[in-house]
Structures are given as structure tokens and as C-alpha cells.
Task: inverse folding
């Protein structure tokens, strides 16, 4: 349903050195440098998928999203979404997608939120009944009933983001693009936004494509991640697959009473303080249960936790691996 | 069509709430209007026969101009549009199933009308109450008023179509400062905002009257005052229709090109 093939996009950027003399010089002649924002980007996404599109700042995430939304024309390559080429058939294409740019607002600043919603209803030509039903459902799911009569300028960021999500879904798009939807949100708002997106994907079957720097988002939401760096797709696969790939080591953190225990094969000490031990375990040499019983036989265990690698660490190691 | 009307409505109601701005604008316009009228009066006292318009016509010209400044003046730009282009907020406007040109056009017309409605009534009221030589006079006939109304809306169309071209140019220059000032200065001077066109030297006037700027405030104001009437007024309205179509087509064409090359600013 989304098919992206060999997209290329370059930007020309005027640049100049610092200083007044350089600024004056730039009045007469400018130097341009070309930035290759996307290099041969290809992937396809099926209906109902939830995909995390990740990469460091400036990797080309937003550029890809903007091309898929019909805002930018690529230099070469194709992109077909529901049988349409976004930039050729922009008006028809955008009627079937929803977009949230986390760093911008689509709500009118000085008027109550509900007025912005009504405007969107008219812009998308949503029928009265469908609109009512959608609005009621979204208001309940996102808990925004008291916010509707307030002007946008008086909302907190978390409140606003929930309203933005509702705004982009009033016309029941089949695909939702989220460009950094949780940026700057507090923990409670983040969780609310994540839960909502999960529900949307599971119950309505909406295809969701999200870019984020928050690995917690990825961990909770995305079954599949696409990693882009310096304009190229580096990896495309499921999160658990990638985790297995990146490292198999587990971390054991234990609080105990007694003498410092001896460590068996496959266990490596990371940190030892009075009554607290952190060690790294290689499951190939020693399984988790063997390790636990070996430790429990020596000391009285007060608390113990085993964790795999976090998405955060995994992505950091991927960035390092690919030098991006 | 519904969607553009809806946009018109929200823009209109949004602008109506800026009462303090309207009040401040009104004070400026009173001051400016009186100053202009008194300056003209001083000239007319020196030699009333040396001028191409009667003093009462000049007074009406200035009052209508001040009352509907928001309709006639190019420099009432939509700052939101400039901002949307230079900071990338335009991304949200492009993900709507709407034609961007029509959208901005509807938005501009709504904003100008809302501002004009707030300001025009008090100004017109005062213009009717001041002592006779300064007072505004009514159009000579119902027909003249009808022609004025038609010309009035056409000039709004021409002004907005002209500003649309300024917005589109901003896609390429990114900073709107230079182009918006040049465009507004040119229009102010050549549309008779500073000095009515009849006061121009003959040669300059002959040229100026054919330019698109003559299709802005020059035409409705001169029709209102009766300086242009009958067949001549119809010809003037024809010129307005012509320039409106030309600017509209040009703006649309430029917009189409710009969107193909557009770089949406910011991440």
C-alpha cells in the first residue's frame, strides 16, 4: 500500500563564513553547497502496519515524510501510496492521510479548539454524522472534552498534542504520519499519546508511520523499525530481531546479604558495592536460571532483576556501528 | 467551495476580535485623513481653479480611502502567510485537500473585510458630521453608487491578486522584507494612495492610468466622487476586470512553479 522506490532528494544551501566581511561578500556572490538528503531510499509498508522511522537529526526522516505527504517533490524515484503519487495528485492524496508535525501546530491559535475542528470538518468535507461520531470517540479516547472550548494558545503542550492528534484523525485517514509526536511532552502525556496510537492501530487498523528520537516510543509502539542515516536506509526489520542482532548480553542487578559471591563462567562483574552487584551475563555460556541458582546458593538474595539491552542502547550502538 | 467559505468564516471571526488594533488604526486614520484634507484645502484656497478635481471630490476621496484602508492598501499583508513560508508552517497547509492559492486568497479577502468593517463605520460617521467643506458627499446617483460598489470589490480582487504574487515571490527569497516594501511602495504611489492620479503630470498620468495599480483604489474612489462616470466608468471597470484576470493567472502560474521547487523550512 505504500511503496517507495529509489527516492533521491538534494537541497541547495547557501552558505557563508562568519563575520561582517563575509556577509558583505555574500551580497554579490553566494556559495552554494549541495546536500544529499535522500540517497536511493526504498521500502514498502503494508496496510495496518506500525512503523518506527528512526535516525539521528538530519538523517532524512522528515524529508521522507514530506515526500510521502505530497509536500516535496523528489529529484528522482517513485513513491506510490494507495495507488497515487503524492506530489502529482496532492489534493486527492492528502484527503486520505492524517499528519501530525510535532513541532508545529495545525490549530488556530486564537480561536477555541472546536472551531479548528469544525474548519477541518469542512476542509475535508466530512459529513455531519461521521464527524459527530468521530469527534465523540476521539474526545473520549484522548480525554479532551474540557479542552474543546479553550483557545489553543491557553493549552499546555501535552493538552495541545492530544488535540492535534484528534484534529488529524477527524476525517478517518487510512494512514497517519507522525513526525516526532512526543517531542517535549511530560511522562503522563507521552504515555497517553502512546496508548492512544496503539489503540488506533489495533482497533481501527490505521497504518501508522512515526519518526521519533524517543526510544521508549519505539519500544512500546513499533513492531518494525526502519533506520536511516545520512540519507540512506541502513536497516529494516523488527525490533526484537534487531535487538538479538545487536547484542545478546543481559544485565543482572542484584541486592543481597552476605559475602561477595564468586562468579561462574559467562558472568562478568560490572559493578560491586556493599550489598549490591551488577554483572553481565552471556546466555550462550550460562543460562539465566543457572546464574540465578548459582548466586542464590551463595548469598541471600533480596532483590534481583535481569534486563536485555534497551532500545536506547541498541540504537546508540547502531548509530556507532554505522558511524552516523 | 464550502471549504473556502469555512476558512473565510474562521479568518473573519478571528480578525474581528482584535478590537484594540482596530481602535488604534482608526485614530491613525482620522489623524491622517484630517491632515490630508487640510493640506489640500490650503492649496485650494490659494487657487481653486488650478486643480483637476473639485475640493468636495477630494474630501470624499480621502474619507472613503481612509474608511476602507484595509480593502485598498497593498501593505495590509497577511503576516501569517509570510511566516508560514519562512518558518515552514506551510507544511500543514499543503497536507490539506485544498488549493493553496484559493486558500490564501479567501483568507486575505476575509481578513481585509473584517478589518474594514470594524473601522469603516466610525470613520464614515465622523465624515458625515464634520462641517460642509470637509464633509463627505454622497454619490451623484444610485447608478453611480452601483458602479462604485462593483469597482470597489474588483479593486479588492486586484489588490489581493497582487499581494498573492508578493507571497509567491517570498518562496524564492525566503525573507519577505525587501519584496514586500518595494511592492507596497510602488502600489501606494501608482494607485493614487498618496496623491490621486488626476494630480499627476499629464504624461505620467496617461501611463499610470493603464497600469494594474490604476485598477486598485484609483478606480472606485474616482467613481464614488463622480470624477469618472458613465461610459468612462464602465471602461475603467473593464480595465479592472482585465488586470484582475491577468494578476490572477500570473499568480497561479507562479504558485504552481514555486510548489514544484519549494523547500519546506525547518526539520
Result:
Amino acid at each position: 500500500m505504500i511503496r517507495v522506490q529509489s527516492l533521491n532528494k538534494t537541497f541547495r544551501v547557501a552558505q557563508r563564513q562568519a563575520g561582517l566581511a563575509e556577509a558583505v561578500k555574500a551580497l554579490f556572490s553566494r556559495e552554494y553547497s549541495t546536500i544529499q538528503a535522500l540517497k536511493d531510499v526504498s521500502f514498502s509498508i503494508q496496510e495496518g502496519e506500525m512503523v518506527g522511522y528512526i535516525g539521528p537529526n538530519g538523517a532524512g526522516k522528515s524529508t521522507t515524510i514530506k515526500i510521502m505527504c505530497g509536500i516535496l517533490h523528489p529529484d528522482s524515484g517513485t513513491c506510490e501510496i494507495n495507488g497515487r503519487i503524492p506530489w502529482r495528485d496532492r489534493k486527492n492524496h492528502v484527503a486520505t492521510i492524517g499528519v501530525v508535525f510535532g513541532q508545529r501546530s495545525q490549530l488556530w491559535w486564537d480561536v477555541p479548539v472546536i472551531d479548528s475542528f469544525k474548519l477541518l470538518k469542512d476542509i475535508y468535507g466530512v459529513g455531519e454524522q461521521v464527524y459527530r461520531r468521530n469527534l465523540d470517540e476521539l474526545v473520549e479516547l484522548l480525554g479532551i472534552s474540557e479542552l474543546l472550548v479553550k483557545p489553543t494558545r491557553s493549552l499546555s503542550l501535552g493538552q495541545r498534542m492530544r488535540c492535534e492528534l484528534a484534529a488529524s484523525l477527524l476525517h478517518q485517514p487510512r494512514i497517519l504520519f507522525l513526525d516526532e509526536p512526543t517531542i517535549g511532552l511530560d511522562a503522563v502525556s507521552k504515555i497517553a499519546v502512546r496508548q492512544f496510537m496503539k489503540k488506533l492501530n489495533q482497533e481501527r487498523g490505521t497504518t501508522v508511520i512515526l519518526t521519533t528520537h524517543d526510544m521508549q516510543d519505539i519500544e512500546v509502539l513499533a513492531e518494525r523499525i526502519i533506520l536511516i542515516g545520512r540519507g540512506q536506509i541502513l536497516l529494516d526489520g523488527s525490533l526484537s530481531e534487531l535487538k538479538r542482532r545487536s547484542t545478546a548480553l543481559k544485565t543482572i542487578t542484584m541486592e543481597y546479604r552476605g559475602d561477595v559471591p564468586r562468579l561462574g563462567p559467562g558472568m562478568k562483574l560490572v559493578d560491586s558495592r556493599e550489598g549490591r552487584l551488577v554483572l553481565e551475563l552471556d546466555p550462550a555460556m550460562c543460562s539465566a536460571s543457572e546464574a540465578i541458582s548459582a548466586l542464590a546458593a551463595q548469598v541471600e538474595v533480596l532483590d534481583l532483576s535481569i534486563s536485555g539491552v534497551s532500545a536506547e542502547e541498541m540504537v546508540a550502538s547502531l548509530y556507532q556501528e554505522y558511524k552516523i | 467551495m464550502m471549504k473556502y467559505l469555512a476558512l473565510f468564516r474562521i479568518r473573519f471571526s478571528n480578525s474581528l476580535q482584535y478590537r484594540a488594533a482596530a481602535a488604534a488604526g482608526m485614530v491613525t486614520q482620522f489623524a491622517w485623513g484630517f491632515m490630508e484634507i487640510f493640506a489640500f484645502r490650503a492649496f485650494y484656497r490659494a487657487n481653486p481653479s488650478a486643480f483637476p478635481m473639485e475640493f468636495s471630490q477630494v474630501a470624499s476621496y480621502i474619507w472613503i480611502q481612509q474608511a476602507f484602508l484595509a480593502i485598498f492598501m497593498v501593505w495590509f499583508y497577511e503576516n501569517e502567510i509570510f511566516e508560514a513560508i519562512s518558518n515552514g508552517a506551510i507544511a500543514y497547509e499543503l497536507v490539506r485537500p485544498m488549493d493553496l492559492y484559493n486558500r490564501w486568497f479567501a483568507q486575505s479577502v476575509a481578513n481585509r473585510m473584517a478589518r474594514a468593517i470594524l473601522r469603516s463605520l466610525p470613520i464614515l460617521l465622523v465624515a458625515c458630521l464634520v462641517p460642509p467643506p470637509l464633509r463627505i458627499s454622497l454619490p451623484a446617483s444610485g447608478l453611480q453608487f452601483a458602479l462604485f460598489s462593483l469597482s470597489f470589490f474588483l479593486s479588492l480582487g486586484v489588490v489581493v491578486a497582487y499581494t498573492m504574487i508578493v507571497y509567491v515571490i517570498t518562496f524564492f527569497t525566503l525573507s519577505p522584507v525587501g519584496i514586500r516594501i518595494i511592492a507596497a511602495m510602488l502600489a501606494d504611489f501608482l494607485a493614487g494612495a498618496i496623491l490621486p492620479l488626476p494630480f499627476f503630470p499629464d504624461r505620467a498620468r496617461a501611463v499610470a492610468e493603464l497600469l494594474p495599480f490604476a485598477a486598485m483604489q484609483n478606480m472606485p474612489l474616482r467613481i464614488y466622487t463622480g470624477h469618472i462616470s458613465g461610459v468612462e466608468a464602465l471602461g475603467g471597470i473593464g480595465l479592472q476586470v482585465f488586470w484582475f484576470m491577468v494578476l490572477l493567472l500570473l499568480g497561479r502560474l507562479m504558485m504552481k512553479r514555486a510548489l514544484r521547487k519549494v523547500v519546506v523550512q525547518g526539520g
In short: Chain A has a mean pLDDT of 87.
